[in-house]
Amino acid sequence: MATAQALPPAPHEFSLKAAERLHKELPDVEFKVVAHLELDGKDSDGKSIGKMYLDRVFAFCIRNASDCDAGLGQYAKGIAETVKERNRPVTQAMLRIAIRPDEYLEQIRKQPGASNQKFYVRRVAPGLIAIPVVDFTRTTRFVIDNDIEKLGIGEEDLFKIAAQNLRETTKPLSAVTVIPTANSLGQITGEDYASSRLFFHSDWKDLAASLHNQLIVIVPAPNTLLYGDASFPGTADALRTLADRMARGSTKPLPMQLLHWTDTGWETYKP
């Protein structure tokens, strides 16, 4: 028996639905569509709380029409938590390192007041950057100059503290990895910052050595890292296939590219 498939909404229809969902989470804020997949929220005093860019969650709905409502709900709750926690004091213990695609910088520069902000980023791999974030447990946001000033630290300390916090809240790499064999892939899942393990390049040295420097990885989403032994035929294709499936189920997909561990850093994998 044939069943009807859910159809993805049109951009404007989706934007209106997102505005309604956000208003449900933040009753004191009115959201209006101001541009293509873009909302503006104003509080009861008419002050803008910022622009909401719906490109990523809309792309998720295009890929996963049947899960669109759940994805939009997750997005709305995340925005609501961010707004509610804006005035919460930031401490050094909240700092983490997140991995984001290059275009993430373009997105945050569009946010109100962001044009004058300095962004603290470091290159991790082609197409990927490491950016310090403030972790509020349920939501995160990028670190701003005001945070640095209040914490009384510099850029170098910012990265050191964020990296150390990440190490202290995750298991050692050796505890979550295995040596992949023929017809098998390694996975690191169930960690909010699984992809951030790329930041600790030297941690992968022993595993890479055991694979005769044929270690390749791919990060389809911030909470997922896949790896394998490139010396086995079919490993690269298997990683891409699995990563594509996982990225489709994520509201924050990362660039679908294979990375090869080398002594000097992560490089784009070339067979």
Molecular structure report:
By secondary structure, the protein is of the alpha+beta class. The chain has three domains: 11-84, no CATH class; 92-168, no CATH class; 173-268, no CATH class. It has helices spanning 11-25, 55-63, 68-84, 103-109, 145-151, 155-168, 173-176, 205-210, 235-248; strands at 30-35, 38-42, 48-53, 95-101, 122-125, 128-135, 140-142, 186-188, 215-221, 224-229, 259-262, 265-268. It has a five-stranded antiparallel beta sheet. Strands 4, 5, 6 and 7 form a four-stranded antiparallel beta sheet that branches. A three-stranded antiparallel beta sheet has the order 1-2-3, covered by helices on one side. α1 (11-25) packs across α3 and α2 (55-63) runs antiparallel to α3. The mean pLDDT is 90.
Would you summarize the structure shown here?
The chain has helices spanning 11-25, 55-63, 68-84, 103-109, 145-151, 155-168, 173-176, 205-210, 235-248, and strands at 30-35, 38-42, 48-53, 95-101, 122-125, 128-135, 140-142, 186-188, 215-221, 224-229, 259-262, 265-268.
